[in-house]
What does this fold into?
Amino acid sequence: MGAAGAEAKLRGGIDLGGTKIQAAIVTAEGEVVGDSRRPTPSSGGPADVAEQLAEALREAAAAGGVDPGTLEGIGVGSPGETNEVTGEVSRAVNLPGWDDAFALGPALSEALGVPVRVGNDVDVATNAEFVLGAGRPYGSILGVFWGTGVGGGLILDGKPWHGRGAAGEIGHVVVEIGGAHCPCGRRGCMEAYAGRGPMEAKARHEHANGKKTQLFEIMEKKGRERLSSSVWDRALKQDDQLAKKLVDRAVKALGAGVASAVNLLDVEAVIIGGGLGLRLGQPYVERIAAQMSKHLFLDKRPPAIVLAELGDLGGAIGASLLFDAAPR
Ligand SMILES: [Zn+2]
It folds into this structure.
């Protein structure tokens, strides 16, 4: 909790993703008063990304009629390894030229004139659902973010669980020994079947081998270069057989992987979010739950399996919550 009098102050939150940057101005109660989005630069380096983050935040502030200099602070949810003490981010492999540590927090603080804290993107999104969203009724949750990859975040007995810093990598739970190639370089991980990236690679491969599918026509019509969540959604609605096959395969992998995590941790609830999770929505949450029940040790007493409530801005809202915690 902030100091007395700080409650009325607004915070900024920025969600730094591999394809887009989302910024929001958020009240201490988690309400969004202004937001903006812009594409993540695909070339350059960390300094260029930082510049776009600052610009996105300024736009969100303008949309909310707020002077950025009056914010209590700005939180950033970032991929890669984040150091909450120094504000450094390293090994953000989906961002351009970002292997070495870059002091993102200090750079943004300099640009915007207010304190900045950085946290891991999946952790802040999980915390947002725990504090303000679908996880509110529960003490222990697993957040599963089904998007380009599959990320996971854990809250156990009311506290985030980071392990030695790398906990929650649910995408790399093994669902098939010696199975499909995963972007991590190993085989058989859940993400190798359920990540939108590997799903696209598989679709391109099958299409090149003559499998009929409308996926790539839909992609071109939408002016995209990738099979985005909305492309998959449209193909499913058009009853595209290859899309259905690959999404079914993803759902099965999610069922096995998430159930295995539940067998280990016995959390009260699993929150399904991420670009693909949010886009496909409740019917697919139910399909994941049905697949999970095949693998749950206590299948008569499953956890609640629910869709994330905060939607697309959950990451940015969660980042603003970095100013709820005492500085570490
Ligand atoms: Zn993997």
